[in-house]
Amino acid sequence: MELQEIKIDQTQSENSETIPEQSPSIDKKESFFLTTIRLILWRIIATTTSILVSFILTKDISKALSIGIIDNLIKMIIQFFYERIWIYFLKGETESKMLTCIRVVIWRIIGIALTILIAFIITGSIGDAISIGIIDHVIKIILHFLFERTWIYYFSQKN
């Protein structure tokens, strides 16, 4: 299955309605406000996932809440700048599904390292920390890609 680039491509129909042929992507036009909203929504999903995975693996709600909340507060700040830098480098160009994959995977690598570090500091166990980091992020790779494509599709309809 080949990934196709998604472009903003509109055609005029006979009754002058604009019909998007394909869904566009995130671009440089996304405002700081929308980046912030996107970040908050994703962080809610990510925090919930981290807490659930941490609780399942440690059986300790206090540690799970600590890992989930601290990890995600730190990532919220880092991810905001990561997303703004990504948008800057797109320079208004279309983001293909492949670029969405690359962007999400790069963020997941950063995220895995941070989660493992934070989980190790809180649990004191490198085994638990690695398990939490890997399982949490395998789930998040899938969720993050679906979230980003949904965001792109939804906001493409508004433009």
Could you explain the architecture of this structure?
- The protein is mainly alpha-helical.
- It has one domain.
- The protein is built from 4 helices and 2 strands; from the N terminus they run E-E-H-H-H-H.
- Strands 1-2 form a two-stranded antiparallel sheet.
- A hairpin with a 5-residue loop joins strand 1 and strand 2.
- The radius of gyration is 18 Å and the shape is elongated.
Characteristic terms for this protein:
elongated; disordered N terminus; 159 residues; two-stranded antiparallel ribbon; single chain; mainly alpha; 4 helices
* Proportion in β-strands: under 5%
How do the helices and strands follow one another from N- to C-terminus? EEHHHH
- Main sheet summary: 2 strands, antiparallel
Number of helices: 4
Per-chain topology:
Elements lengths: L9 E3 L5 E3 L11 H27 L2 H30 L6 H27 L2 H31 L3
Antiparallel strand pairs: 1-2
In a nutshell, what does this entry contain?
This protein is mostly helical and 159 residues long.
